[in-house]
Design goal:
The complex is a heterodimer of chains A (484) and B (484).
Chain A lengths: L3 E12 L38 H13 L7 E2 L1 E5 L9 E5 L8 E6 L5 E13 L3 E3 L8 E3 L6 E7 L6 H17 L12 E11 L9 E6 L2 H20 L7 E6 L4 E7 L9 E2 L6 E2 L2 H8 L6 H12 L3 H7 L3 H14 L4 H18 L11 H12 L5 H14 L3 H7 L8 H14 L1 H8 L5 H12 L6 H12 L6
Parallel strand pairs in A: 11-12
Antiparallel strand pairs in A: 1-9, 1-10, 2-15, 3-4, 3-14, 5-6, 6-9, 7-8, 10-11, 12-13
Chain B lengths: L6 H9 L5 H19 L2 E4 L1 H16 L10 E5 L26 H8 L3 E6 L33 H8 L6 E4 L6 H7 L2 E4 L20 E5 L2 H11 L17 H4 L8 E5 L8 H16 L3 E5 L7 H16 L18 H12 L2 H14 L5 H24 L2 E5 L15 H5 L6 H6 L3 E9 L2 E8 L5 H14 L12
Helix pairs in contact in B: 2-3, 5-6, 7-16, 10-12, 10-13
The chains are: A alpha+beta (484), B alpha/beta (484).
């Protein structure tokens, strides 16, 4: 058995969030009745012509600037010719030799905290095809051209990834980035963000890449990981049993968790690319680039670095909190209301209770039932010791389900922390009195029983005793000191 | 007789209410009914719509509105999409195609108050130089019905020559307006590439196609071109530059005009044709023009260059005709491949198939560089030759075709000889230049055309030069026997 190295490159297709299509005025809204968002241009009627949607170009340039890529002053749309019923013109308009976005790079964080740079070869604009529909049609195929002509940015990476996990981390990072830039809604169920994975293996240390297979149309992070895992296993097994990997296109079947051959290199289409004579070369001047540059938001890496620097967060926490623009904004609003010295507390709550509640109820952070201001009000009560962190979790649940402010819930349910040491001492005394056996064991050296007494006091106070005070007083009492 | 009058005179009489648009439409419709059966120039007659449009024009005239084309009838080449009317492009493929929209030039001419009488016959998808490739059968030349009228705008040229309409529209990809104009003794104008919108004109070769007009004189053509020309946001290749008042520029002084005589244009030209061109040049020198001999060394390469570029583009442009959404569909397709193969196999004629195959070949992997790329380079050299020539001269004058009209059937089995018919016209298409063919005499009782080619956007100067010639001669007034 040799030691194999996995080599992966991804081609990500991000649907650009323009309101109209890349070469026609039809709407790009998802989910409309088939063929209601396809005009004569999308249907490729005789005589119609494409006209480039400048917004799509702006978005591509925005992406290029965000990954530090060179923006081509002149790029060319080409025709990729092939016949298929969901491709009305018989060719797809894409960019071939001169793409709008050149070489750039993206950094990803690996599990061990190390940072890795993944090269981006190019990103180019192209139009999407329509869809073939088979369900509910006997002996026929339906064609829905609503999606035909939707703008896509195809982002091609270098073969820089060495594991399925790295591939997923890269894809997630690009996903974060396009959503930050507001150029793609990132909706993977609707196909707005999907990828093709080029996968090969080679003996570790080998200079040459192995023969690759391209797995088409992966539309979830989980599928990317599983498909690559399967494909790597298949290739290694094939080679080790004396076979050879053939260059081909494969499809991932998520039901069976396997990849299947779609077509081999020999069967591959000759796309007969040539410059589209209906479209002029796309000229992008300095002024245009500068105007797009002014629309760039703070990027995820910049935001994470700032969180770590200004709030003393760990790189991991800063990364999680900057993973989406909305999450970052929520966190910063909480910190603004709570005060920067308590940023770590805010970070723990946003990443902990808030994120679990959002996940559990499948709610986007923008639609959170607890606002940043309301969460900050709750956290203030931990800071000023009105309630303990533990009680705060219950209050948060009540806020989430009832939508009332933290103070109202604390008041109504009488959850205010007991900080009167006399009152706490009283409870401790009665607990000790009721448990003579445990007291004796504790005093004979069974230190673990300290926790038992804490629990009993908390139980008796409904969890309201101030934990720090309780600890201090209990230690003294158990040691035999104090008023008892 | 109304059909002997110029567009200007008809407009004057309409404005003076001496005649009505309905009367005019009826007159030409009657001529078409009587004369077209022996010519086959008109393949769709739209009598009802014409009378309705004429009545609308009369109402506008009655309301005091005036326009140089208001109420004037015309015939459109069947390559232009016309809403609610069959738009066949001379092909079985579109025999059943009723266009749901108007081409930009159709809409512009409609808006100007013209009255469409019908649609004219043409070579299938504009591929041909004799009108013999039409699905609707050949068009006959009114000067001699055993002869071709030229192509691909052969229906339009025959209709203009036979006075079936005051003027007709055409398209020119390699000479398809100028060559038939020459062969039928009318004035044909092919504007600068980008001067007239291509939207709604069924594409043959997108980088070469240009719409224009076939009329009785440069004066009439000027009026029509002024309405057709102009930037169209729906056509990215149309140029946003103001349209001059071509009519006002007609009488600009000709004295001092520098006319280039192309050495290459007289190579292989029949002596009697050459003599007529030399006569025409003498008319110009008598009017004060200066003639200078120039050379375009790469021009002899224009035919092979054209027969790489045009088929390449057409092979892709015609992919949309797949039997899926509109147009011809074969009976009972077995499966998708059968649907494509039989629909296209049965829907296209032999010349169209020949060009699709040639085009597919030159774009194929392994042949692209040797053919398509090389042809593009030669195209640049030819364009540069013209540019250099226009540093010395204002326009070029030469023959439009090597011979007068040839017999129907004489060249159908010899595509290369047929292609050589466009030897003098193709250069202007490759370089995107405007050109005019104007009648300049007869050989064997068949009309001969003189061609004028100018720099980009020099239509005003070309029309003026042709107009001066037509004021000094009366070749353009000659009407074929039986059509006076």
């Amino acid at each position: 058995m040799s030691d194999w190295e996995v080599v992966i490159g991804l081609e990500i297709h991000a649907q650009l969030a323009t309101r109209s299509k890349i070469f026609s005025g039809s709407s790009t809204a998802y989910g409309a009745t088939p063929n209601t968002q396809a005009n004569l241009v999308d249907l490729a009627y005789p005589g119609v012509l494409p006209v480039l949607n400048e917004e799509a170009l702006r978005m591509a340039v925005k992406f290029g600037l965000a990954i530090g890529a060179a923006i081509a002053p002149r790029s060319i749309f080409a025709r990729k010719n092939y016949f298929y019923p969901d491709l009305p013109k018989g060719y797809q308009i894409s960019q071939y030799e001169l793409p709008v976005v050149g070489k750039g790079a993206i950094t990803i964080m690996l599990d061990d905290g190390a940072v890795k740079t993944v090269g981006i070869t190019r990103a180019h604009l192209e139009e999407d095809a329509g869809k073939s529909l088979h369900e509910g049609l006997a002996n026929a195929t339906g064609i829905d051209l609503n999606r035909a002509g939707t703008p896509l940015l195809e982002i091609v990476s270098e073969p820089d990834m060495r594991s399925a996990k790295e591939a997923v981390a890269y894809m997630k990072k690009v996903h974060t980035l396009v959503r930050y830039l507001e150029i793609c809604d990132g909706n993977m169920q609707e196909g707005s963000f999907r990828c093709d994975a080029n996968v090969s293996v080679r003996p570790r240390g080998a200079a040459k890449f192995g023969t690759r297979a391209e797995i088409k149309n992966l539309n979830s992070f989980r599928f990317v990981e599983k498909a690559i895992h399967y494909e790597v296993g298949r290739q290694i097994e094939l080679i080790e049993s004396g076979g050879a990997v053939v260059q081909e296109t494969r499809l991932y079947d998520s039901d069976k968790n396997e990849t299947r051959s779609m077509r081999s290199k020999e069967e591959a289409n000759d796309y007969r690319y040539f410059p589209d004579p209906d479209l002029l070369p796309v000229e992008v001047d300095e002024k245009f680039v500068a105007s797009v540059r002014t629309t760039l938001p703070e990027l995820p890496d910049e935001k994470a670095a700032r969180f770590a620097r200004d709030f003393g967060l760990s790189a991991y926490d800063a990364g999680v909190l900057s993973a989406s623009r909305e999450m970052g904004e929520f966190f910063e609003s909480v910190v603004a209301a709570l005060g920067a010295p308590h940023a770590k507390l805010a970070a723990n709550w946003v990443m902990g209770e808030l994120s679990s509640a959002l996940n559990r109820d499948s709610v986007e952070i923008a639609g959170s039932r607890v606002s940043p201001a309301a969460l900050a009000d709750l956290l203030k009560r931990i800071v000023d010791e009105t309630i303990s962190g533990k009680i705060a979790k219950d209050v948060f649940e009540a806020m989430w389900s009832e939508g009332r402010p933290a103070d109202a819930i604390i008041e109504a349910q009488g959850l205010k922390q007991i900080t009167d040491s006399g009152a706490i001492e009283g409870v401790i005394d009665s607990v000790i009195a009721a448990n003579p056996k445990q007291l004796a064991e504790y005093r004979s050296g069974k230190d673990k029983l300290f926790g038992f007494f804490v629990g009993q006091v908390m139980k008796a106070t409904g969890g309201k005793a101030n934990p720090a005070q309780l600890n201090e007083l209990l230690k003294v009492k158990l040691a035999g000191g104090g008023s008892s | 007789m109304l059909h002997t009058l110029s567009v200007g005179e008809l407009a004057r009489r309409l404005a003076a209410r001496e005649i009505s648009s309905v009367e005019l439409a009826r007159h030409f419709l009657a001529r078409i009914e009587r004369l077209n059966p022996s010519l086959n120039a008109v393949i769709t007659l739209t009598a009802d719509q014409a009378l309705e449009a004429a009545r609308a024009a009369d109402r506008r005239l009655a309301a005091g509105e005036r326009g140089r084309l208001l109420g004037i009838p015309l015939i459109h080449k069947d390559i232009f999409c016309t809403e609610g009317v069959r738009t066949s492009c001379g092909s079985r493929m579109l025999d059943n195609f009723i266009s749901p929209y108007d081409a930009t030039i159709v809409a512009k001419l409609k808006g100007a108050g013209t009255v469409m009488l019908g649609k004219s016959n043409m070579d299938e998808f504009a591929m041909g130089s004799s009108n013999e490739t039409s699905y609707y059968g050949p068009v006959r030349n009114p000067w001699d019905t055993t002869k071709v009228p030229g192509g691909s705008s052969g229906g339009s040229s025959a209709a203009s020559a036979a006075r079936l309409a005051p003027f007709t529209t055409g398209t020119d990809t390699g000479g398809s307006i100028r060559q038939p104009a020459a062969l039928t003794g009318v004035t044909g104008v092919k504007p600068t590439y980008g001067r007239v919108s291509r939207y709604g004109m069924i594409a043959f070769a997108s980088s070469l196609d240009q719409a224009g007009v076939l009329a009785r004189s440069a004066e009439d053509a000027a009026v029509v071109l002024e309405v057709m020309a102009g930037f169209d946001p729906k056509d990215s290749t149309s140029v946003d530059t103001p349209v001059p008042d071509y009519s006002a520029a007609l009488d600009a002084p000709l004295k001092g005009l520098k006319i280039g005589i192309l050495r290459e244009f007289f190579d292989g030209l029949e002596s009697r044709n050459a003599a007529l061109i030399r006569d025409a040049l003498e008319v110009y020198t008598a009017m004060g023009a200066e003639t200078i001999e120039v050379s375009l060394p790469h021009l002899p390469l224009s035919v092979p260059t054209y027969y790489v570029v045009a088929p390449a583009e057409c092979s892709s442009n015609l992919s949309r005709f797949d039997g899926v959404r509109y147009g011809y569909r074969c009976d009972q397709p077995k499966d998708l491949l059968d649907l494509y193969e039989r629909s296209r196999g049965e829907g296209f004629g032999p010349e169209v198939k020949r060009r699709i195959m040639t085009g597919t070949y030159v774009l194929s992997a392994g042949y692209f560089d040797a053919y398509y790329l090389k042809a593009q380079k030669v195209r640049r050299l030819i364009t540069d030759d013209f540019r250099k020539a226009f540093e010395k001269v204002d326009l070029l004058v030469g023959p439009t075709t090597p011979t007068p009209a040839f017999a129907i059937g004489a060249k159908v089995d010899d595509p290369v000889t047929m292609y050589l018919n466009d030897i003098y016209t193709i250069g202007a298409n490759l370089a995107g230049l405007p050109g005019i063919s104007a009648p300049c005499g007869f050989v064997d009782e068949l009309p001969v055309g003189m061609q004028l080619i100018g720099p980009h956007f020099s239509e005003a100067r070309l029309l003026s030069a042709a107009h001066h010639y037509q004021r000094a001669t009366d070749w353009h007034r000659k009407t074929p026997g039986g059509y006076q």
